[in-house]
Amino acid sequence: MNSEIATTLDTRSGRIFVKGMNTDHPRVWTQAREATINPYVAPLAPRLLWRINDGTWDLLGFEHLDGRPADYHPHSDDLPLVAEAIITLSGVRAPVDPELKHIEQRLADYIDNPDDADLLRGETLLHTDWHPDNVLIVDHAARVVDWAWPTHGAAWIDAACWVVWLISAGHSPADAEQWAAYRRP
After folding, report:
1. Quick one: which of 46, 87, 41 has its CA closest to 65?
2. Are 68 and 136 in contact (CB under 8 A)?
3. What does the pLDDT look like over 91-140, one tens digit per residue?
4. Which of 94, 95, 122, 167 could connect to 154 by a Cys-Cys bridge, CB 3.0–4.6 Å?
5. Yes or no: is domain 68-180 CATH 3.30.430.20?
């Protein structure tokens, strides 16, 4: 989790999920990034209700999602729901934001030939961290949380990032790649 505090508040107007960091935390800037991209990732992500920065804490208050982490095991009913979320996200254009990194910057240490970076470039808004805890199943739909590291890149990258988690959950590499290539029926 990308926060020092993560809790649910029960308020008169309903439940709110709050995450935050002390303003002297070296990664407090991720709070602003997550707030900035929130309108672009609706309705996949919980709606940002408010942001408070009092000089000591930077807090984000989100719509509370009553769901459970996605199950990535073979034959799980969650797999098509997650695949649908990835397909939907692949159509979201990244906002123009100088603070938003490009995937070729994030992966620069893994690129031997600079020309290979062209394969990663794109203007799609990427999540890149498809850990099952970052995908909640709510009302028969996959909702994506923890947007601290949104990135510009090619539309296929989130599906490729999901492959690693599918293999970790027991899929063969070939089966995981089939799910990554999933298309709507």
Report:
1. 46
2. yes
3. 999 988 767 899 999 999 999 998 999 999 999 999 999 999 999 999 99
4. 122
5. no
Radius of gyration (Cα) for the chain, nearest Å?
17
Phi, psi of 176 (to 5 degrees): -60, -40
Q: Is the pTM of this model over 0.85?
A: yes
Which of 3.30.200.20, 1.10.510.10, 3.40.640.10, 3.40.190.10 would CATH assign to domain 5-63? 3.30.200.20
The three-point CA angle 105-91-51 to 5° equals 70
Non-local (6+) Cβ contacts of 19 within 8 A are 1, 2, 3, 5, 6, 59, 60, 62
